[in-house]
Amino acid sequence: MAKFIAALLATALVGAHGALAAPPSKSANPYNLQPYKINLSKNVPHMLDMIKRTELPAEPQYPGLDGSMGIDLEDLKDLRESWLRDFNWKKEEATMNKSVPRFKP
User: Cys bridge to 69: 6, 65, 86, 98, which one at CB 3.0-4.6 A?
Assistant: First the structure.
């Protein structure tokens, strides 16, 4: 990300003849956007703790209903186990940070 921003800035600063152009004025970027990265490290432990403490019913409350009325209990149990045991939150965070540049004011 830093290399991309540096390349973008270098391209903007170099004029048509290869000389450095004047830096853009503040009015050219009135929103003063700054890049940032998603950081899940603070919130994931709390979320995982809440998932662990959530008591799911042993049997479906409304047996025979299809997925149009909500998630199937067995699917929810499988998802819960996946989030607690298998899901790589660090990898997901890295993927989110690589996929689309993010900016905030």
Answer: 65
